[in-house]
Fold these 3 entries.
Entry 1:
Amino acid sequence: MTSKLPAGAIVSAEHMRAAEPDRAQQRFVLFAVSALALAVTAVLSLSIGATGISLDALPSAITAMFGDGDAESARSALVLLDIRLPRTILAAMVGACLAVAGAMMQGIFRNPLADPGLIGVSSGAALAAVTVIVLGHGIAAPVVAAFGVHALPVAAFAGGLAVTGTLVVLASSRRTVSVAALLLAGLVLGALAQALMGLLAYLSDDRELRDLTLWTLGSLAGSSWTKVIGVAPFAVLNLLLLPYLVRALNGLLLGEAEAFHLGIDVERIKRLIIIATAASVAAAVAAAGIIGFVGIIVPHVVRLVAGPDHGTVLPASAMLGAALVLAADIVARIIVAPAELPLGIVVALIGAPVFLHLVLRRGAYV
Amino acid sequence: MSDRADVLAAQSVSYRVHDVSLVSKADLGVAAGEVVAVLGPNGAGKSTLLKVMAGELSPASGRVVVDGRDLAILKAGELARLRAVVAQSSNLSFPFTVREVVRLGVSVPGLSRENPRIERAVGDAIGRVGLAAFSGRLFTELSGGERQRTHIARALCQLSVARDLAGGGKILLLDEPTSSLDVGHQVVVLEALRREADAGTAILMVMHDLNLAAAFADRVVIMSHGCIIADGPPRQAMTEAILSRAYECPLSVGRPPADGIPFVIPALGQAKAAKGARL
Amino acid sequence: MFALLKRVRRFLWIAGIGSLAVCGAQLAPKAHAETPKAAGEQRIVSIGGDVTEIIFALGRGDSIVAVDTTSHYPPDAVATKESVGYMRALSTEGVLSMSPTLIIASGNAGPPEVVAALKASSIPMIEISTPETPDGVAQKIGAVADALGLKEEGAKLASRVKAEFDAVAAKRAKVTKPVRALFVLANQGGRVVVGGTKTSAEAIFGLAGAENAVKSLEGYKPLNDEAAVTAAPDIIVVMLRSDGANKGEMAKEIGSMKGLGSTPAAKAGRIIEVDGSYALQFGPRAAAAASDLMDRFYPELAQKPATAERP
């Protein structure tokens, strides 16, 4: 066959061979770098903190955990195992959930700038959280009475799901979810939530106002094992779902009709993605408050490096998202130690310049 | 038409949007190995009929039969195993390479991405539309014609993989596959499609170029105002009377003695005269 | 429930740490942990400006290792302390990194999860919330003194503050016609935020014998221009930034504003600047702050020497 081809075609075939391994190599490099970044940030997150306790103290901390050990080991155990470890796990889960959710939203909206905010999760969660902050002694008192310290995260989670659920119902007709209607209804509900939050901010007293401002800036300061256990099911289910979504999301990038032609049950997949995104993002927001940027920049960076194939984008986003939030959280808690910066600010401060650099360097709209 | 062994058939299919009938009572069958071109003016309902037959739109009445089964009961996955579709325009704003886009056509679930048979099928489909030199190029950086050929390769890949691995790949539907191609590439694509038909695939495509359709299709179906007004081999169906009625403008049909394939040219003088008469 | 949590935690520990421990130990920075000082020496983290002031007033300022960002007084001494950040945004490890032996916090400390975690640690933590009244201040002093084991000193300070409040009350009794005062918390481009009912500003006005000019708002709220005219305060009290950098600015701005500029207070030039941490925190200086404010509200009463006030 080759012998019959004109000379030009042979050159082309070589060109093809030269271009082809590119993506495989890009994918390998990206996975390696992401995994390394995740491992390094996770270890650093466990080793660095205001107390200066390092992982050296771990053996004695573990001994102390089982009941014997001096006060020093008890303190190490407290810091390493009850403060830093849940915080590290939570940061990784939050980062992974947000980044993957961003990638999935960009897939179903076919827009590289889409984020989970479009389906109302964050505004719903924020509205519920602000309600608990401001009306925790009024209308929302039963919630506070029932859940105590966890009233706010529980409410935020429920609020995120409730708003997304409402949106999906509004945007559905005859068992089809229209992405365009979703976008419009999302805008309207978002504005409504914003207005209600404004109203609550007006009603709030000084302290509540500070609380709600701080909450919207995001923080992992209140991390606990209870929160880890609360977020883990959603994060893990979401990650387990990813392999099943790769082909569907790739197909959806061609358009919904094309995806259907390729054998994808578009309506089922859209619902599945919206539910998975809503649940994982609501859980992440409930645990850490509002953290922007991760859902947009991480998938964007991944696509810049290794192309838009979701087989690469989803797992790499999960790892890099986790690494980014871990890194930002390390900075947040050590830069003004013993005080702490809001995490959302740090993520934006680290993320925005990196993002700008990548976009400008490549000059590409991915 | 019941005596034909049609692998794809529309049976008295109608489609409406808000009481406006876009397709009415269309009967159309395509047999294995047959190439059928759907002709007609803009708005005649060609693309709508194609979409109904692809399963993208549900008919208001009538039914579509795919490989002996009612399309309405087939799931998206089963349908994709049997047929591939190239839509009129599908834009893609994410920078996939040509090879990645074509690989999207692999619709058999559960195959590992690095399966060598798949990779061979992908490369083969790219070669068949003359894009071998472009396989590593970004789709977003291609010309309109190159994009169109990429989508055709994707559909060919979908058929060949379905055929080899899942006993499917029987039908190909295309909406104006040659519209943004130059003459040379029109020939490349049509020859690739002919080879696909020779391998047993039933091909139904909407076309605008009457002469290309006349030269290439085994059968032409001519539509006007949502109705099929003629169906048969080009030599019989493409008459001056039928075409002029369909396009609502006088057309001359010539038949070179060599092969008898009709060629169509607009009868400009008569058109002017007709217009003048109307005024 | 708790048993389950404990089991899950243990599982996570074994699974999670086991793998990380090996490589982590190599990578960890060798930053030395601050070892707790010898027994007997207190290391206090003080959260809340009022609490910090009381600890200093009780003579134990030296034991404070860290304060929050609402602690401003005494300025020079507070400046030498570490900061654990804003009192509503504390960090568990940040506070613990000070190796405190005692945490004394205002009831406003937060977020709740961090406060809960701190309380769950082995370090004693005391939260104090008392009403913004003379009795409340005395209770607050008592609570801090108890925590420090300085009952006697606490009682002494409390009674001194109480005596000051009594003197203020006596002076207040002479007020025949209370002035109407308006508290301006902030002014952003002509939009003023004022103190309505249930604010510390209203509480201190009450102690200083003045009436809050805005009773229609609750909390600190933006006031519209027309309502400013209707409120018609005799006196406007503006809050200075904690570093006093905006001294004199607000008075000038208010004078030039349409709404507030036309009030009796602005016309008579009766715009008073106060230090927020002094006037609004209800610490040991609250009585003095009330007294100062009263002197400026009623200059005629302040003319007479203090001794002459007692019959």
Entry 2:
Amino acid sequence: MISGEKLVQLVSSLLQQVYALLDLSAYAGILDRVVCAVVMFGFVAVFVMFLVWMERKVSAHMQSRIGPNRVGPLGLLQTLADAIKLTTKEDVRPAKRDKIPYFIAPILAFVATFMGMVVVPFDNKMVVADLNIGVLYIIAITSFTVIAILSAGWSSNNKYSLLGGFRSAAQIVSYEVPLVLSLVPVIMITGKLNFSGIVQYQQQAGYWFVFPQFVAFITFIASATAEANRAPFDIPEAESELTGGFHTEYSGVKFAMFFLGEYVAVVVSSAVAATVFLGGWLPPLHFLGFIPGFVWFMLKVLLIIYLIMAFRWTFPRLRVDQLMDFGWKVLIPVTILNILVTGFVVLLFGKGA
Amino acid sequence: MGTILGYFRNILTGFWNLVLGLSVTTKYLFKKTNTQQYPEERMPLPARSRSMIKLIYDGEKDQFNCVACMMCAKACPNSCIKLEGVRGPDGKRRMTTFKLDFSTCIFCGYCVEACGFDALTFVSEEYENSVYKRGSLLQDEQAMKWVRPPHLAPKPEEPAATAAGAQA
Amino acid sequence: MTDLLLSQIKPGGESPFGTDEYVVNMGPQHPATHGVLRLVVKLDGETVKETMPVLGYLHRSIEKICENRTYPQCITYTDRVDYVSAMSVNLAFALATERLMGLEAPPRAQWLRMIFVELQRLASHLLWMGAFAGDIGALTPFLYGLRERERILDLFEMTCGQRLTYNYIRIGGVMIDILPEFVPKCRAFLDYFDPKIPEYEELLTYNPIFLERTKGVGVITPEVGINCGVCGPSLRGSGVSCDVRKQHPYLFYDQVKFNECLENDGDCWARYKVRMNEMRESVSIIRQCLDRLEPGPIETKLPPILKAPPASEIYFRIESSRGEMGIYLVGDGTPKPYKAKFRCASFSNTFVLDQLTRGWKVADIMAVLGSLDMIVPEVDR
């Protein structure tokens, strides 16, 4: 029987042998991390490509269309073809751009969101860095996107881009709050800031947090959608208003980085939601435990990603002030109320409520 | 108290309506798609489709039906038809050159309706009319030559020309 | 006009903080302007201070061209005035010319005209619904709308051979009689279409985001609407009864039962609701027309060369998909109109835009523009 833990052991023992062969055993600790990060990067890159394909397929079928079906089986290689197209494209740059932020913004957008992935456990012990403040780290690191988008909007020297950048700044700052607040009840119950710990708590308790914390789950999904700039909260790029918003002036590889960054943000939010609310690598029923944990984890991630995609292709877009209203007048009161109720219940019934 | 209740009721009904909307798109996710994959799957156009204008060529008599009566050229709103004819040895007029500029033709069908000699017709089979050079849209009688297949012989109850077009 | 506008803006402005007005050119190439409409928008942050539509990017001088064409030839140009609802403009021109010359189309032709114009209204409203939802950010209704519209276009193509520029409704009748299989196919389409409207409504009408974006946004009060010349469904959203089909019936609209759809709020949502209800009414009108369709001639005998009486003029209006479509014709005894003037609903509806968007947000321009159902070729002609 294969499990994430055994896989990790196997790989690390293999790596030990390689280090021994290359006489690098002294640096094993660092090298392990490097290998992990590279593997994670490759995995996320491929997964995001799959997601782009999935989004196009899902949206197509929702609209009675077929979607990509030409490149590769079922059009699976379509994203690869698009990526090749984007990378070989001429990099068109506005003449009066602000050079340094213009260059850094797409990199930051991609890297900042990607870095969130390293603390998410795919299976028991199958995690790049099992930080004991993982939740805090992920919230801190993903909010870097706002700097990327703001500098992209500013440096493009385009009116639409600037509007998009401003909108993004306002949006991400306000949705950061409900995002954190919807994770707080879970942290209150478990007393842990570590993702593996939260999953282990769900394993011992025998239930997933989506059931006692359904409201928090919904608010988390909503604010995570806003964090990732996805419709119905995609006002920074709102194509029917601002043509392309902050990435109007980007083309080629830089545009691809923004594009991928958006999807990585979706993956990170879905991974966090799957871990915190849907029990991470735990199987839904006990007898299904023969299927390895990382498969369950990926299935849950895909489920949430599907939900976010369905939002995008079903709902209209909110206006910028309504977006603020929704964040401050609906999401935050609801999450605070949820925290109060949870705190009350935890007080009454002890930590295991 | 009522406003607080209303606040939560609003949130709940809003949430429910979002779920309703999601149910519609999710329903279509599993339904059959509507797409026709064009170059492989070709749509047979209806017989009346105005997709290409052709000059009818009579294989038996080895000549075009056109007698250069100029009715089509007069009916054309864009003056995109240019034709010339001569009186033949048998005393009947025959078309010598016929030029139709498809770059300005709007396929209104007046020329076909105005034609009283069954010389112009629309064909529905040929609808891929795009070309690489604008010049190739100026077609002459050889390019527009079309022999009517036997199964498309004109029916007596459907006269080739209706009156309205002939007004022009 | 624009240069004037731009020159009025001085750097520094009047504010002590030295804030500047932010002038954004929306269009002529912009995803939301439905073609080549250009809006010069003055912004204060996100808030709109002024919206100025700049017209003329799609001007083809159709009215002038009509002066050099015979009356039947003009019909082909009316197709291009409003290509989303070409049948309506065909009908308006044909009816105006018939009135000018004292002609009357036979009953079967009238019923056929009604069927096709109402089908066209369905097609036009479907496209509008998709585009409106797209402007607001929901992309899926556009595809749903087009899917149904394709079926209507199939019916058109089956009958007259074209999908967009029909040239079907002619002076004195229609171009060609319908095929025998048209009636069952049309009924089948209506049966297919009936359950689709509730589906769109489920997707949009009470969606809280849609409500937020459209309720109370871009309110046209009846006074403003009438003063600015707003017409059609956009004015009926404000509760003003202005349906030409009811008030000055043409064709056989006085013989079929249908309701004039009215809403009282005058906001984007009311206009949306009016159009959705109009689709239902159109379905019922088409059903009644199909029931009453009887065999007979489809065109009157016309003189070989159609000439208007000398020094004659006519203004005739119909209710096109977008509102009141008026045709003003002056005849001078020749086969060509001396003057043709198209009074288009989109053109008059455009000028309420500035009033509706002042003080609102950038995104509301899209919502209002979408809800007014503008077609740029009709604005510019």
Entry 3:
Amino acid sequence: MTSTDLPLPTYKPKDFASDQDVRWCPGCGDYAVLAAVRKTLPKLGRHKEDFVFVSGIGCAARFPYYMETYGLHSIHGRAPAFATGIKLANPDLDVWIVSGDGDLLSIGGNHTIHVMRRNVGVRIILLNNRIYGLTKGQYSPTSERGKVTKSTPMGSIDEPVNPLALALAAECTFVARCIDVDAKMLVPTMERAAGHEGCAFIEVYQDCNIFNHQAWFYASQKDTRPNNTVDLVNGEPLIFGENRDKGVMIVNGRPRAVTLGSGGVTEKDLLVHDETDRTLAFTLANMRSPELPEPLGVLYCNPDRPAYEQESREQIRQAEEARPDTKLAALVAGPDTWTVG
Amino acid sequence: MTSQAPEAPSSTSPTPVEAVAVRFAGDSGDGMQLAGGQFTSTTAVLGNDFSTFPDYPAEIRAPRGTTFGVSGFQVHFAARPIHTPGDAVDVLVAMNPAAFKTNIDEVRPGGMIIADEDEFSGVGLKKAGYAPDDKPLADEVLSSRYRIVTVPMTRIVREALAETGQSAKEIDRCRNMFALGLLCWMYDRPLTPTIDWLDSYFGKKKKRPEIASMNVTALKAGWAFGETTEAIPERYQVAAAELPPGLYRKINGNEATVLGLAVASAKADTQISYCGYPITPASDLLHGLSALKQFGIQTFQAEDEIAAVAAAIGVSYAGGIGVTGTSGPGLALKGEALGLAVMLELPLVVVDVQRAGPATGMPTKTEQADLLQAMYGRSGEAPCVVLAAASPSDCFDTAIEAVRLAVRAMCPVIVLTDAGIANGAEPWQVPDVASIPEIKIEHPVAQADSDDTFEPYLRDPETLARRWAIPGTPGLEHRLGGLEKDGTTGAVTYDGPNHQTMIAARAEKVARVVDVIPPMEVGGDAGADTLVVGWGGTRGAIISATERLQQEGIATAMVHLRHINPMPPNLGEVLARYTNIIVPEINSGQLAMLLRANYLVDAKTVSVIQGRGFHVEELVNGIRKVIEEAGR
């Protein structure tokens, strides 16, 4: 049902730009992510017509309109369910969900959980700006406690949700985090997500420069990022800091930030990243600045679980194979008939 | 085990009767649905016309013996065509005091009650709310009104199965077969179909031949009880009805919907993906279709009603036929997504098996109160095609038509059925599948060497449907969404005049479905002053009522709507011919409101909203009353 047998054109990022004017606010982090996605798609070896971008509602959800691919701008929170239907009908399509923290974690929290636990083969890009932008600045499910917004003049009393921990708890098989302006990490992470058989989830720290400017600056800027984040490399120890002299080590079962050389700590003592270890992934997902560096890159990847849509197809194939002679007329007549006249 | 049934010769020769309604009533765990279903199957084989009414509580296993745990199964069978499960019951089988108490009012005066006397003591009476010294079976008033036959069912079954070594619980579960055997004796029905079924179900499928054998013993004990005692002095015979010749099967509405969708998928040569969330009384659609994978049917049990409709829309976007099914509360949840489907202009079929509402209401009981929700229950102006199945077997044709119209008009089609026809069964002349027309689906492809951009909202001049371009098609990349679109390019626009044009186009597109709707045929006495207008699952009761009114000398014509939106092309002209327009509905007058609004006619409502189908008698009285009032 896709055109894989046709020769693959050589695409450039601009081939994925639709004729629509991009209407995000100047300076919005979404521009960087849009550019990174357009940069990623030509690398994937897929035909343009095989991509489908699906979104819910919100600023981020305008994303499909700006991609010269198939796209579905759906209703608030339900993008994962629409995407599931698309994959069920045609598993060969490359389906991407791009939406925001309000859309995917608040009104659509339920669908986000279930698309993950089913392992539907979609790539989810969560543009997390910790605020409601389109409705002009109310607090979101990822806003920090005490956040003062139009709807929380005395500060939010809601505990924010941790998107990575939620994804892991929902049995998501690929969990990663990136920063909007860091195309160097974002592009290869999206490439890996695209190659993942099941459900791939990337949380993107995205700046809303109008309603929640600088929310991620503690982690996203040249001078803040080294000390407040750690780039995960599979099989490598967790080392961070502007001089790469800090690390994360497990002490009494808990992660702790340490300085290399201090108290005899060496690289060998540090926690080594293993992206197949789900328990470790939970530990990483719960590392928060300033106590610990926040992890960036791929926290968890389990490539072995089959995708939901493939298993659905497989059951149909098995049933068809087991009963190849099935006749529609016999089905309609059923096992018990009688004749009149 | 011998499968030879002790059927004939019998000491008493049966008296012929024209039509009988029997109701099996007992505890939810007493197997009443099974006994009633088997009695119906046997009746079908004998060539009677029939109509059934399973009446069960929402509680899966309410406390044993309580009145709210009573489950009933009514079957009306006749030597002539019949259209309803019957108003009043001729024979009630009451397996316990609670069943006796809750069902006795359903029995016609002079009717028979066969009760398991062993249950009418101590705890059984107490649980049903009787006083310890109450003797309902010996009640003088009741005994003068009904023929109460007491049978020691529990004791006989226990004695008959004493040597099996099975627990009392397993043995007592065979009481339903005893009751069935007794009724089969009484109405001269063979035991063989039931014995075959027991062997096949318990013996082969469940690998419990000992259970099959126990049930057969109980069944035969019931027959023998009728034969050897004189507890029931008479036997009856209901001859075969004169139905059109052909091959028949028994079918209920949910089964028919499932088959209709399977056939539609084959006729459209396109996979149907049924996306549902369990809800009474629609869950059997999900169950039925999930067992049809060998026909290429895909099913998806979503996390909620909204996800179910959203996934179905996703399926249609990707080129499959997205179908979702639900009941009233679920339809409410799907409202926003239905609005989106209207905006996207994608085919979608939504089956609403209506139940008594609002909110959770009475989930197992029937109602027709979702009509206006189906018409208007969305934000903005979001017209959908609305169809309503008229009987259990009509669900088959309606489901096929829904798929046909959804792909024709590129819009959602809502199919209204109801708990009554979804669970009720009737004989159905098996259709010739080969003669059902194909459903034509076309997906556009890009013209070679053309640089033209695909315009997703260009419309077919005849149907006004837009083209169904699907992902994976080179050169037709486009974006759909809930924001208003330019009428040709499909680009997002907030242009006022374009919005009005698009609203009109979406409405006109649905209205033009009328081009493929056949004109209505007027039934009954077409020259009468009174026209009874019905819709959906009440057709059988309305036919019976108008027939009876004719017999009483009150001339009535009738039409029955399967097409609610748009309505049939000649409906306005038909309505204009009659002085009295009477609309019986299991709601407070929703169709009447539409008829008044659309055709400026003084439609009067007859409504009975009690969680069940119309009784013919109350319909006759209701219609007569409206006619009399109009005549004053």
